[in-house]
Design a protein that fits this description.
Elements (H helix, E strand, L loop, with lengths): L14 E4 L8 E4 L10 H12 L19 H10 L11 H17 L9 E5 L2 H22 L8 E5 L4 H9 L3 E5 L10 H6 L5 E7 L11 H15 L5 E4 L7 H4 L12 E7 L11 E5 L11 E5 L2 E5 L9 H38 L3 E3 L8 E6 L8 H9 L7 E3 L8 E6 L6 H19 L30 H7 L2
Parallel strand pairs: 4-5, 4-6, 6-7, 7-8
Antiparallel strand pairs: 1-2, 3-9, 8-9, 10-11, 12-13, 13-15, 14-15
């Protein structure tokens, strides 16, 4: 079925009619064609401004992990750097220097063996960072296989079915077989045992997620790494780990310092995070880091003679503003370790308190409680048959709350849940207002004779919790043999 844009679902007028209060005279503006003539800037502003009022309130969006609040000083710096192209490192050398400082700060935060020897770069977000990390894993595997005189056909990557949709895109775009570990029972994340079962000599890497988009849970990175150590001892198969820390890589260092998930584990080759999630920057920046230069194949790094200088670059995007990188550095300076710790602890406190209060409300059962990522998921209890999580989501939206409802993937498609993401700027007061509205809608929902909404009404509101497309058979016979030596 062809993808329809919103305006194609209705008989849209071909023109926008502008209120004469905002212009010198009534005018009509074509919706889908470039206007023949220009207009007063205030009129153009008002047209765009009025249409954007139909968007949801970003501060009440409990679906997105992306930052929706920033200090005025950060916003001012972003405005001052909006015209600076990150790729022009010869023209904007200090912006390039600040990007490098952020890389070294993150390498130190993630316990790289030598934070000054670690390599990395900024990206437009974790999706691009994941692509770069996956490419590095694939290229390293190809180099090793060629050196051994072996085939480089049919590379695969092992991950839980709960990974963000960007990993499915990576596998499709760069021709890597995705081997998904399905959910089973109350296990909603990748386990070490199940990961190793799917590895063979063609496995380029295992992706471990520090903070699942489905429920906020950490995957056991240290256990996965240890199981892969055992696999190598038994079979000689050496499989590196990439940690998708889109959210958790900016939570765990501050709140879970004793948790081993990062470059302290020798098997962890690379880590990505989203600066615009719990890095506290407005949308548009991610980070990809490798433990050392050996983890990033040199043939993936381009040296471009660009505008008078030699510029090493490893990125999928070329031109992009330096504003978000500058905002990341501002946050690092402004908050420091202690400041980030306070912000993230507050988010976790709000999440765990809200989860505990919701657990006390009769119709709901917690899936997670916000004690890892400041994110929790809950479902309608088993004895409730007259409304669904999709009814709850729709009712909350009437009050402006954007709370995603979705079904879990294989093998738990029977489970439907609501997920709440707590970000900086969503404090206890807003949490109390959310609880009041949740309690307010319950009498109406409980009075229903039957559910009014189901998964078909959820649209594409999952924010990373989309169902993955099944790839080739997950556990071919030769994989099972190889995994157990």
């Amino acid at each position: 079925m062809p993808l329809k844009r919103p305006h194609q679902h209705r008989d849209a007028s071909p023109h926008l009619t502008v209120n004469p209060v905002f212009s010198r005279e009534p005018i009509k503006v074509p919706r889908f064609e470039l206007p023949g003539e220009g207009m007063d800037p205030d009129t153009a502003y008002q047209i765009v401004h009025d249409e954007l009022m139909l968007d949801g309130n970003a501060r009440l969006n409990l679906a997105t992990f992306v930052s929706t609040w920033a200090e005025p000083q950060a916003q001012q710096l972003m405005a001052e750097c909006a015209e600076k192209n990150m790729i022009d490192k010869d023209e904007y050398p200090q912006t390039a220097e600040i990007e490098a400082r952020c890389v070294h700060m993150l390498a130190d935060l993630w316990n790289a063996p030598d934070s000054h020897a670690a390599v990395g770069c900024s990206t437009t977000g974790s999706s691009e960072a994941a692509m770069l990390a996956g490419l590095a894993l694939k290229r390293r595997w190809q180099h090793r296989r060629r050196a051994e005189g072996k085939s480089t056909e049919r590379p695969n990557m092992v991950m839980g079915i709960n990974v963000q949709i960007c990993w499915e895109k990576f596998a499709d775009y760069f021709e890597v077989e995705p081997r998904y570990v399905p959910m089973e029972g109350n296990r909603f994340i990748l386990s070490a045992e199940e990961a190793v079962k799917l590895c063979d000599e063609n496995t380029i890497g295992v992706v471990a997620v520090l903070g699942s988009t489905f429920d906020g849970a950490y995957e056991p990175v240290a256990e996965i790494a240890a199981a892969l150590d055992g696999l190598q001892e038994r079979t000689g198969i050496d499989v590196p780990v990439h940690v998708d820390g889109a959210s958790g890589a900016m939570i765990a260092p501050f709140l879970d310092p004793d948790l081993a998930w990062d470059f302290r584990l020798p098997r962890v080759a690379s880590i990505n995070t989203s600066g615009h999630k719990y890095g506290l920057v407005m949308p548009g920046v991610g980070w990809a880091l490798w433990r050392d230069a050996a983890a990033l194949p040199k043939d993936l790094v381009f040296h471009v003679n660009y505008l008078g200088g030699d510029m090493p670059t490893f990125a999928l995007n070329f031109s992009r503003p330096g504003a978000q990188v500058i905002a990341q550095y501002y946050n690092f300076l402004r908050l420091g370790f202690d400041g980030y710790q306070v912000v993230q602890q507050t988010c976790r406190d709000v999440a765990t308190r809200l989860a505990a209060e919701i657990a006390k409300i009769g119709p709901f059962t917690l899936i997670t409680d916000g004690s890892e990522l400041p994110v929790f998921a809950f479902r309608v209890s088993d004895d409730i048959t007259n409304f669904t999580v999709f009814d709850v989501s729709a009712a909350l939206r009437e009050r402006g709350w954007l709370v995603p409802a979705y079904t879990f993937p294989a093998n738990r498609t029977d489970l439907a849940a609501l997920r709440v993401v707590i970000r900086n700027g969503f404090g206890h007061d807003l949490g109390d207002l959310f609880l009041e509205d949740l309690r307010r809608i319950l009498p109406r929902l409980q009075a229903q004779q039957q559910p009014h909404r189901d998964a078909d009404d959820a649209g594409s509101f999952a924010h990373g919790a989309e169902t993955k497309t099944a790839g080739r058979p997950a556990i071919p016979e030769q994989v099972a043999r190889g995994a157990h030596g």
